[in-house]
Amino acid sequence: MFTLSAAGDNANKVMLMVGLSANISVLFRELPLLERFAAARAAGFPTVEIQNPYEYPAATLTSAARAADVEVILINAPLGEDPRTFGTACLAGRAAIFRAELERAADYASTLGTRMVNVLAGRAAPPQRSGALRRLADNLALAAQILGPANARPLLEVINPVSAPDYCVCDFESAAAILDASGSRVGLQFDVYHAAMLGLDPAHAFTQQLPRVHHVQFADNPHRHEPGTGSLDFAGIFRTIRDSGYDGWVGAEYHPSVATAAGLGWMREYGWI
Asked: Minimal CB count within 10 Å: which of 120, 135, 219, 269?
């Protein structure tokens, strides 16, 4: 974990923390999910993220996390009947089901002590996109209402249209409009890989979106493997994040090109351990 001093040289400097987390839905897949908590901790990750925790009871996951001495900082909301939709928050005709899914996510967040829940928007073809964005904004407001008592904040993620054709929130302009209307109730999950796939400089895009960012994830471009396997300047990206004043978590969410532990050299190279 990086410790940063806020601007100024007085004796009461505010210390900002930038921490590293492992998404154990994609990392350490050589092991069963319940064993990945300990593997992540042994590798130097103090926190983990889980895309789909609903395969196990929340209490079982909590026990595994506590035994490994890691914190679960992020989960996804349920993806609906068909995960290929990339979420359901923008879809029509699912109001009752969506509320039930949010309540399930809130139960898991409360048990796990998780403070962030990624609410994936879902797909909407261009002719339906305007109405889908309105539904998404309404459903994110509902998510904030339901997740609030669990001390969890809903997040909105931009996903590039190559990885998810017709994804409802495929650019940062759309996300910014929704988030600005939501106030502080909903945050942006900024993904370095998706920014790069949109043709953006991830460091610059992160700086532009910084007031909205509540979580960061990363993978190299174009094959979504570990840093150093593609074209991205992770030394510059991590430096920008550290120097920005961002004090949240930076999540490794990539598909390892080799066995996970064998591909973690980037942690030392970029000063995470």
From this structure: 269
157: three-class secondary structure by DSSP: strand
- Would strands 213-218 and 187-191 be described as parallel, antiparallel, or unpaired? parallel
Catalytic residues: 157, 253
The model carries a pTM of: 0.93
Give 58-94 pLDDT, tens digit per residue.
999 999 999 999 999 999 999 988 878 899 999 999 9
148 within 8 A of 125, measured Cβ to Cβ:
no
Crossing angle of helices 33-43 and 58-68, in 10° steps, is: 30
Query: pLDDT per residue over 106-155, tens digit each?
Result: 999 999 999 999 999 999 999 999 999 999 999 999 999 999 999 999 99
Which residue, among 43, 44, 39, has the nearest Cα to 19 in the 3D structure?
A: 44
Pairing of strands 71-76, 116-118: parallel
- In angstroms, the CA 150 to CA 129 distance is 31
Token couple for 7? 């601007």
Maximum pairwise Cα distance, the chain: 57
pLDDT of residue 17: 66
Count other Cβ atoms within 10 Å, centred on residue 42.
11
CA distance 47 to 21: 5
- Contact between residue 41 and residue 69 where contact means Cβ atoms under 8 Å apart: yes
- Gap between the Cα atoms of 4 and 16, Å rounded: 5
Whether pLDDT at 10 is above 90: no
